[in-house]
Write a structure and sequence with these properties.
The protein is of the alpha/beta class. Helices cover 36% and strands 19% of the residues. α7 runs antiparallel to α10. The protein is globular, with a radius of gyration of 23 Å. The model has no long low-confidence stretch (mean pLDDT 95).
Amino acid sequence: MNNDLRIAQAATLEDIYTIAAKAGIAAEALEPYGKDKAKISQDFINSVKDRKDGKLILVTAITPTKAGEGKSTTTVGLADGLAQEGKNVMACLREPSLGPVFGLKGGATGGGYAQVVPMESINLHFTGDMHAITSCNNLIAAMLDNSLFQGNPLNIDPEKVVWKRCMDMNDRTLRDITIGQLKRTNGVERQDHFVITVATEVMAILCLSNDLKDFEERISRCIVAYTYDGKPVTVKDIDAAGAATVIMKEALKPNLVQTLEHTPVLVHGGPFANIAHGCNSVIATKLALKLADYVVTEAGFGADLGAEKFLDIKCRSANLKPNAVVIVATVRALKMHGGVDVADLETENVEAMLKGTENLQKHIESIQAFGVPYIVAINKFSKDTPAEVSALLNWCKENGYPVEEADGWANGGAGMRDLAKKVAEIVEGETHYAPIYDVNSSIEDKVNTIAKVVYGADGVEFSDLAKEKIEQYKAYGWDKLPVCMAKTQNSLSDDASLKGRPRGYNVHVKDISISAGAGFVVVYTGSILTMPGLPKVPAAVHMGVDEKGETYGLF
């Protein structure tokens, strides 16, 4: 059986102007990057802003496991399934980060016959958005350190610099470094840090901005440091906002590509959901809603992370009203949540699978708390047995949970038509969407609500450092912002080793930070890292280019 890369390489892509025409995008609105991808002009975006919105469908999933869940595959397949049902549909996805592509997680363009293409380009350099974000972030860092070096006119305390450098690669050695060493002309010596590009506030701002002007206003508000007397210093204060916006001028334009079945897709922005807010850009989502009757998008990792942030942060900020949520589950992943080791997944085990449904049930309850209609999608794998699939279908039906099988990986849109029909029915019903917390309540109350309602925790324990910062944030009014939880993706709890549906535990908040430009407070729990490392055997060791000039090993 062909792997994802070979399937993508064998595909015949339509010219990007043909895809644009299918989406109702004028040819003159395109800024092509070769024959198969293009950016869309702001003038065109402005020209359609008064059109009626289509239906917004979010794809989320159970807690991730090594068995795989296939959320992006389901997103792409559902879009193709809706297209096969004759619907006017677009998909909106995040841009992959280079770090996970070469590390362990892999790319983010779907899989099998439910992929977005050109797969290699999207997973690597694409249209340069990630590079622009990296450069923007590091320009701000350089201008900040230059201000320190050039007499420190803003009275910045070098020990209270909070703006971190970044790179779009997994490199644990850069988490904690010392800069400005050896010579005075190298700058002020101080401790510094790197984060992965997708964890930066620049990425969050790109994804939450409405346009370039909004981006500049947001980036101006970003806090980069504090003075010796404790006052915040912003990007505007170091005169970096204009140059930062110049760097991001092209990156703010959404990218148009296609699925293997030539369904139009916007791929734009890519914050991780475990250390950032996990959703594609507001610009792309709003544009798709003006162009299509059905818009299928995704949010990273499980519903406790991506979906919660999509519904509590993105939809609140952008005034979006989701019409349906698709919760992806697999027999394999549920067996792991039921205690089965990854090496034994191909052995039929209905009992363990049913035990693992506790995890699925918690995610269903979380989506119900937001008042949005939903359906469970059973993403099929070839080794699933009829008994296991039947047992999962029966469990859903006995509990009154809408459910449908999804076979996009093997059969593309044709394998998703039953799910597409159900989703098309669901979105015609009423949605009672509402965020689960009042943004004006305290930081402690907001975190407690998420921990109890979405994670299933008993409560929250705040470190002394977190408590101290909460008091500081109140003075600046930052306590009235939404919260963006930084938590492991591998468990509903903040302990990655706890599978299934953990009970009887507290969430541990060790630190918080302010993203004043993005407009939220980041809350760090457990041992979450903002700069991942490579595994013992990175995916990169299996990659290369063959004698025909074709890539291999990319997945």
